[in-house]
Fold this protein.
Amino acid sequence: MRIEYEPPRKKQPVYACFKALLRIFVRKVRTVTLGGELSEPCLYLANHANKMGPMIYSMFFPVYHVNWGASQMLGNYRERYRYLRDILYIKKNGTGRAMASFRAFFEAFFSQFVYRGMKLLPTYTDGRLARTVKKSVELLGADISLMIFPENSDEGYKDELTDFFPGFVLVAKGYKKAQGKDIPMRPVYYHKKKRLIVVGEECFLSDFGAAKKEEVAEAMRFKVNALYHRIEAGEFDEKK
C-alpha cells in the first residue's frame, strides 16, 4: 500500500536542537496509562492544552505518533504569520494585536521546522479534509498511531472541554472499512499544572452501536473530561 505522507522517523536537525533547548526550561512530564499497555496503531484523542500541548506530547508521550494540525502552519511564511497572529494569539488567547504581531513575526520564521519535526498532518476546514482522513487511514494501516485534538477552541482553550469536532470518527470508520476491524481509540489528557499526561482505557467504534458521529464525538469528549476531573481530584498524584 502506497503512503503519500511519510512523517520522518529520524530526528530533524533544527527540531532536535529546538527540543534540546526547550528541555532546559521544561520540566519532565509524567505519564500514567490506564487499562493496559499502549498498543500500535491507536487513535489518541487529546486536549490541546493551549499552544504547548502538542509540543509536550511530542516530547514526552511514550508512543511514536503523527499529529493532526492546522494546515496553515505548514504553509508559506505569510500563511504561518497570519495564523499565529490572528488565530492562535488574538482569537484563541486574547493577545493584543501589537504583541501578537511581534510574537508571530519571529515564530513564523522557524515554526515550519518545529511543526514538521512534530510530524504534523495538515487538516482543513473544507472538502480537503477528505484527503486528511484518507492519509490518516493509510498511516494507521501502516501501524503508525495518530493523535487528534478534536476540541472546538474558537472561544479559546479550556481546561474542561466543551465541544468536540467529529472528524476523528471519519478516520475510525475509514480504518474499519479498509482493515475490516476497529481501530482502538483512547482519551488522553495533559494537565499543565501537575505536569501529568493520563491515557485512558481503549474503546472501539463498535462500542457506540449505531450512534451518529456527533454522538460518538460527544461520548469521547466526556471520556477526556473524565480524565481531567480524576486528575483534579488527585487520583494520580505521586505518593509522598
Observations:
- Residues 97-117 form the longest helix (21 residues).
- The mean pLDDT is 89.
